[in-house]
Amino acid sequence: MTWLLMAAAVILAAGCGVPPPPPERPTFERVAVNQRAVGIPYGPVVLFRIDEQLVAFRISNVPLSGYGIEYEWNTSAVDAAVFETTSTGAGETEEKTRPGSIQAGPLVMEWSRGSEKYGWLYWPDDSGGISVSSITFRSVVSIDLQDPQIFWYKQEMFD
Questions:
Q1: Is 152 within the bounds of a domain?
Q2: How much is the average pLDDT of 12-30?
């Protein structure tokens, strides 16, 4: 029995199609994901998939108070070979007595501050059509939809 457990651990460590678990806190290169929220770093582009659209979402500025954000977003079709912007926008929100609300094209989530370097976007009650890329991108033009490091996390993976 012990050798079976060791073999399974070696196979998982080798990567065999199973992504590593997301970090507990987001990094500049990766998002954090759990059953309640997606941890996103401030600055890089985080890629979401909502039904038939991709949303490139980036927190562009965190005012000095730290309890608000400014963000920008771009959308593209899911079936595009490369990320081609079909719409774009920007917004801002603030966390006061409750999380702030963001709307980035079809992406609607609540945001709250995590630290000076990252925040949390909370899965909506019906998050069935939303998934998030495991990796971040430096800019919208650097999004590589063929990157083998992309793994799409969904909320139900963490129930």
A1: yes
A2: 73
DSSP state of 8: H
Residue 127 burial by CB count (10 A; 0-12/13-18/19+): exposed, middle or buried?
middle
Cα four-point dihedral sign 122, 124, 155, 49? negative
Could you read off the pLDDT of 45-97 as tens digits, one per residue?
Answer: 999 999 999 999 999 999 877 789 999 999 999 998 899 999 999 999 999 89
- Is residue 6 included in any domain, yes or no? no
Structure token pair of residue 130: 């939303």
- What pLDDT was estimated at residue 20? 66
Inside any domain, residue 61: yes
Domain presence at residue 5? no
Q: What pLDDT is recorded for position 144? A: 94
CA distance 14 to 112: 36
Full residue range of the structural domain in which residue 149 is found: 24-158
Residue 9 has pLDDT above 50, yes or no: no
Number of domains in the chain: 1
Q: Which long-range contacts (CB under 8 A, 24 or more apart) does 107-111 make?
A: 107/48, 107/50, 107/55, 107/57, 107/73, 109/38, 111/69
Burial of 132 (0-12, 13-18, 19+ CB in 10 A): buried
